[in-house]
Specification:
Radius of gyration: 23 Å
CATH architecture of the largest domain: Up-down Bundle
Structural class: alpha/beta
Shape: globular
Largest sheet: 6 strands, antiparallel
Helix content: 40-55%
Number of helices: 10
CATH topology of the largest domain: Glutathione S-transferase Yfyf (Class Pi), Chain A, domain 2
Order of helices and strands: EEEHEEEEEHHHHEHHEEHHEHEEE
Bound molecules: adenosine-5'-triphosphate, magnesium ion
Number of domains: 2
Length: 368
């Protein structure tokens, strides 16, 4: 699904915002503080009804305004669609697709998929394993919407097992009551591990290839490292029962896919521990691009890719490689930059260039 236009009112620094996106690459330029990241955030908000920048969504409403509203016009294979999100702090969001109200935009079938690169997303490479697990589970949902529930089902079963451990420790339940739980937990765990392995497999080769284009010195790879080696629920239930003493002592379940890791490697070494800032950044870009390609293959369309201020940290050859990859990939991408010269091939007529300044979109920048 292609995003044609964005309209917003009272979003961050924008009293009014109206932007048309190109079918391929759109470049947003402007000085620091002009509203470039705010514009990407508005696009993300229009696609998901969430902020990609903050958990405190009140922040997106313009200072002094009571509410914000973001409307996206999109073109699907089945025709045009309109998504709208109205938000006043303290009230439920008002979300509608083609005029029909919805509770959660993320569950709508007719919405553009979106993927975002913000500088703080480096946490995905640098941060704790839980960040990568959550990301991997999110990818599962993007590749196979029918499987979004696997993670939730496992998390619920795990929480119940942990609660039962608490009751046993308090003398309120018998130890053997765990055994009945374990087979159910193991069932959800095996499904989750299977999904994670499939999602990693869908991305791994693409990641290596894109990694070579962006960083030709060493090979990039990813590897899913499940905590458990079990292949069936019976094997996993047996592993759990072997560890019951330790779990009862600790007070929680220490074994299972909630301890899995997704390794990102460069030249076979863990980037989290050994990668430079630039190498980690390139790995993150390669991962997002590889996922986008995999999603395009499985879902028939590439997600809208939002890249905030990525060029300033890349050297010349890597800037060229990134633009080449984006244009070859076929979907829509939006890049922000303080300096148009940082985006090679910026003069190409197929690239749409917009300039923002002090909370206003000044319009299209013509080729020099
Ligand atoms: N809720 C809000 N209401 C009004 N203005 C806001 C709000 N939230 C942020 N701003 C303003 O938005 C501006 C920052 O915009 P943004 O982060 O998009 O800049 P940018 O163009 O990405 O800059 P940089 O190049 O430094 O990243 C700041 O001036 C900030 O005060
Ligand atoms: Mg910014």
């Amino acid at each position: 699904m292609q995003v044609l236009a964005l309209r917003a009112r009272d979003f961050r620094g924008y009293p009014q915002l109206e932007v048309e996106l190109g079918p391929g690459l759109t470049v947003i330029s402007g000085p620091n503080g002009a509203g470039k990241t705010n514009l990407l955030e508005a696009l993300y908000f229009g696609c998901t009804a969430r902020s990609c920048r903050t958990a405190n969504e009140r922040e997106v409403v313009r200072f002094g305004a009571a509410a914000t509203r973001v409307v996206l016009a999109a073109q699907g294979a089945d025709g045009p669609h309109q998504l709208s999100v109205g938000f006043a702090p303290g009230e439920p969001k008002r979300i509608a697709v083609d005029g029909a109200p919805l509770d959660r935009l993320l569950e709508a079938a007719n919405r553009p998929l979106v993927s975002v690169f913000l500088p703080d997303r480096l946490e995905l490479i640098k941060g704790a394993p839980g960040v990568r697990r959550a990301h991997l589970d999110h990818l599962v949902g993007a590749l196979w919407p029918g499987r979004v529930g696997t993670r939730r089902a496992y998390a619920q079963a795990l929480a119940q097992r942990n609660a039962l451990i608490g009751r046993i420790r308090a003398g309120l339940s018998a130890r053997h009551s765990l055994l009945a739980w374990d087979i159910q937990l193991a069932d959800h765990a095996i499904a989750l591990m299977g999904d994670r392995a499939s999602a990693t497999a869908a991305v791994a080769e693409r990641y290596a290839r894109i990694g070579t284009e962006l960083d030709s010195d060493e090979e990039l790879s990813i590897a899913y490292r499940p905590r458990s080696r079990a292949r069936t629920r019976e094997e996993l239930a047996a592993e759990l029962s072997e560890r019951i003493d330790g779990d009862l002592e600790r007070g929680f379940t220490a074994h299972g896919p909630h301890r899995d890791e997704l390794l990102t490697l460069r030249g076979g070494r863990d980037l989290r521990a050994f990668g430079s800032q630039g190498q980690q950044r390139i790995a993150l870009l390669a991962l997002l691009l590889a996922e986008r390609e995999a999603i395009a293959t499985h879902r028939g369309a590439a997600p809208l890719l939002l890249l905030d201020d990525v060029m300033s940290e890349l050297d010349g050859p890597r800037r060229h490689a990134l633009v080449r990859l984006l244009r070859a990939s076929g979907g829509q991408a939006v890049i922000t930059t303080t300096d148009l010269d940082h985006v090679p091939e910026g003069e190409d007529p197929e690239v749409r260039r917009l300039e923002v300044s002090a909370g206003r979109v000044l319009g299209e920048v013509l080729a020099a």
